[in-house]
Amino acid sequence: MYGMARNIKSAEDNIVNSIIGEGSNFKGEFNINGLLRIDGHFQGTIETDGKVLIGQTGEAITDIKARMVVVGGTVRGNIFATERVIFLSTGVINGNIITPSLIMEEGVKFEGSCTINKRPDEMQ
Question: What is the pLDDT of residues 51-76, one digit of tens each?
Answer without folding.
Answer: 999 999 999 999 999 999 999 999 99
